[in-house]
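Table S5 (text form). Sequence records supplied for joint modeling of the two-component complex.
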Amino acid sequence: MLVRLGSAGLAAAGIAGGALWLNGRPRYWDRAPGTVVPSFAVDLEAGLPRMVIGRGPDPAVLVRAILEEMGGIGRFIAKGDRVLVKPNAAFDRPVWQAATTNPVVLGTVVSECRKAGAAEIVVTDNPIHAPEGCFRKTGIAKAAEDAGGRVVLPDPRAFRPVSLPGTILDGWKMHLGPLDGMTKVIGIAPVKDHNLALASMTMKNWYGMLGGPRNLLHQRLDEAIADLGLMMRPTLSILDGTRILFRNGPTGGSPEDVKVGDVIAASVDGVALDAFGATLLDLDPSDLAYLALAEERGVGTADYSALSPKEIAG
Amino acid sequence: MARSLILPKRPRRNPSATERITGGVTLVLTAGIVALILSGGAGEGPAGLSEPPKASVGAGAGGALPLKSPAGWPRGETASYDAANVFEKINGKADIYHEYDFRELRFAGYSDPKDPSRYVDVYVYDMDRPRNAFGIYRAQRSGAERPIPGGEEACASGASAFARTGRYYVEFIGSGGDAAAEVGALVGPVIEALGDGGGPAAVPDWFPAEGRGTVRYVLKNALGIGALGDAFIANYGEEVKAIVATCQDEAAAEAAIVSAVDDFELYGTPNLLVRFESRVVGIVGESDGAKAKAFVEAILEKIGAAK
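The corresponding structure-token record, covering 621 residues in total, follows.
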């Protein structure tokens, strides 16, 4: 019996040693090739605008008018589509701070997708800390659910390495799980000052899909944003300039940091949309290094006027 | 004679109770270890980047902050963050705080028990030194907020308030207009709970008062010049800035002047910088040479008088 006890002890010690050695090493599935995110872009019909800029005080009216001008929501969402909507819900800050997507804009987009016959509308983001609090305090959870969307909070199992032809994010773990089975993707981002990137808009919004210690990317933020443009080809991007956080971004804090913008723009080209957004922050598009990088990589054009954006009043 | 290598087969016997227990424990341990390996895993990044330490969450994280607001709103969620993980709470904003030697963020949320949609979030930033708290407070103020009593300096706007006391910089963020009263009411008790935080920031009165705007403090990279730090800066209108930066020694101050002048002249920015002991004293953006000279002399006189 002593021999058997000794063998069992040796086996347990071996297993414990092996566990210690393996702990912290990549899991076997991490060494698998990364996921390539498919394009969610739709074919563009000739004659319909690729970018629309709307100005007016009522965000819901403005969103509907812009979508109509873009050719109708049916141009982007078909019956039975499964739609992922990605707002900026990065902070547990109240809506008046303009650090996150305006819930009225989000709710209206979800509602329009529902009207177009979408089978499922998932609203998700990956705030690093306390996602429940972020979705609740920003008003985004309520707006999404009231409009018929389903809020999906980050789940550790939903993070997978991505494969993309960029310079910094290839292999980085992303919150890709919610994209499984989705047929369309819409990004909705506020217009914000950002102390590192100068501005945070629709392209930086995909930062909310990053897992891991994303602060380590801050030294190469422009490259990371351009890489995100390579990763995600959304169906539509919407720039929410209803309120503009023009200083102390990305969180703000004081009403003095926010001005009323009363502008919303939509485009199939996120680079163009952000180039326009730069002007709302009194910046020149050339001030935003990530726009030039994204343009070099063929993500879109920083010359938004080349899209002949249609301007409407809502 | 060769020995047979085949051992005689021993008859099976039933294991003893001790062996059964040992075997069971080994199996359970093995399953547990395997589960831990599968759920634990590695760092997140492709380059094997390791995870920063997690935020500390719980009652202890609230530290000495009041358990209730003046209206009786109980303290709910609390958390604390250090330099390694503060980005989890404030993301890209963290770098601004790092530039002022941020040490710790303590967060506490107070909400109306009758209507949890009304709340006040309190962010207490420990900036290591009173001077740094002064710097981060001033860096984020537009000047449009209205001054309120509290600590060494406090102000409010809408449903938000800001204060500094000693080495602490504090933000009070309310859910909306209906929480504004509680935002204001919390300032006093929170500041009192924090204590003096190492005493008041020593803000020197070196800059001429006439036409002076906000005086700020910049710990690193003052006026965008890497060699200039530990600097007080006063604005005079949009373009003109007076600066007094403290360097490690006289040689460092001389080197900082050379570096700064090179940089300013590259962009055609008028400047007059001189050394006073280990300090760089000067004015930037003033194109009238005589005015610039008189200005710098006035600052030097004040520094000399203060010695």
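Note: Residues 39-50 of chain B have pLDDT under 50 and may be disordered.
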